[in-house]
Amino acid sequence: MSILDKASDSSAVLLKKGVDDEAALQRSCPCGSGKCYSECCAPLHAGVAVAQTAEQLMRSRYSAYVFKLADYLAQTWAEKTRPVEISFEENLSWQKLTILQAHKGRAKDKKGSVTFCAEFQQGLERFRMTEKSRFERDKQGCWVYVDGEFY
């Protein structure tokens, strides 16, 4: 399967999963990578690719919050810390993700952490949150989110 086929497949899957704006697939990815969404987090969200690093998973999870993709968040959350239900705040919109530091979490590692700052707006107020997220590989060798420490 070529990259074009994968992009086409991920677009179709995401349109069914709730990314209901086809134009969103062609805009810059909300994760801040500088890539087009269809070539960045969309293939991960659609299940046609897996994150190769903890940072890539962090970015894809941020984008999943932007698009309210609860199933993806659950699938990429460590079973031992995964909540029973994932819900989203009303009137909250994620504005920007800045990666501050990534420690380990590369393709060859088993664990890693990513410290980030996420800007969001709720109603008319703007906020920032800083978190150090911990990641590990699950039994299948895929990166999963374990937990985070807020600053």
What does this 3D model show about the protein?
The protein has 151 residues and is of the alpha+beta class. It has one domain: Nuclear Transport Factor 2, Chain: A. 26% of the residues lie in helices and 30% in strands. The protein has 4 helices and 4 strands, in the order ααααββββ. The chain has helices at residues 3-17, 42-46, 54-67, 70-75, and strands at residues 92-104, 111-122, 125-137, 143-150. A 4-stranded antiparallel β-sheet has the order 1-2-3-4, with helices on one face.
SSE topology sketch:
Elements: H1 3-17, H2 42-46, H3 54-67, H4 70-75, E1 92-104, E2 111-122, E3 125-137, E4 143-150
Antiparallel strand pairs: 1-2, 2-3, 3-4
Short description:
It is built from 4 helices and 4 strands. With 151 residues, it is an alpha+beta fold.
- Give the averaged pLDDT, no decimals: 89
Q: CA-to-CA gap between the ends?
A: 43 Å
- What is the CATH architecture descriptor? Roll
Total number of strands: 4
Q: So how many helices?
A: 4
Q: Helical residue percent? A: 25-40%
Number of domains: 1
User: Can you write the helix and strand succession as a string?
Assistant: HHHHEEEE
Strand content: 25-35%
Largest sheet geometry: 4 strands, antiparallel
- Rounded radius of gyration (Å): 15 Å
Overall geometry: globular
- Structural class from helices and strands? alpha+beta
pLDDT < 50 runs, ≥5 residues:
1-7
State the name of the first-level CATH class: Alpha Beta
